[in-house]
């Protein structure tokens, strides 16, 4: 009898559905919103202050998309006036290690990326050489 060696698990193929989800989770504002909500729940204006460059419209759109995808929960408190607070959902919390890894990677490699960009730009501009 011939022995078989266990094969590595097959890497999933990137489908349109995968790409759409990754686009929504890793877009310009979602990553920052998720990272901020992993720290603690926040009200809308607290999120705007924590992410100062985001517009009200972009933040609203991002929160709705993250809520639809199960990453964020919107909690309405029956107070006067009504209070709305955003929490990281359990599914969103599973992204914490990945977010930390991406932010760590970008911090570590940003100097190398800046150098690569400068080299590329210098080579692409005939007037500079």
UniProtKB/TrEMBL annotation:
Q: Residue ranges of the HTH hxlR-type domain?
A: 8-114
- Pfam families the record matches: HxlR (PF01638)
Where in the sequence is the signal peptide annotated? none
Ordered alphabetically, the record's keywords are:
DNA-binding, Transcription, Transcription regulation
Record's keyword annotation contains DNA-binding: yes
**Which spans of this chain does the record mark as coiled coil?**
none
Does the record bear Transcription regulation in its keywords?
yes
Descriptive protein name: Transcriptional regulator, HxlR family
Organism encoding this protein:
Actinoalloteichus caeruleus DSM 43889
**Which Gene3D superfamilies did the record assign?**
Winged helix-like DNA-binding domain superfamily/Winged helix DNA-binding domain
- InterPro entries per the UniProt record, alphabetical: HTH_HxlR, WH-like_DNA-bd_sf, WH_DNA-bd_sf
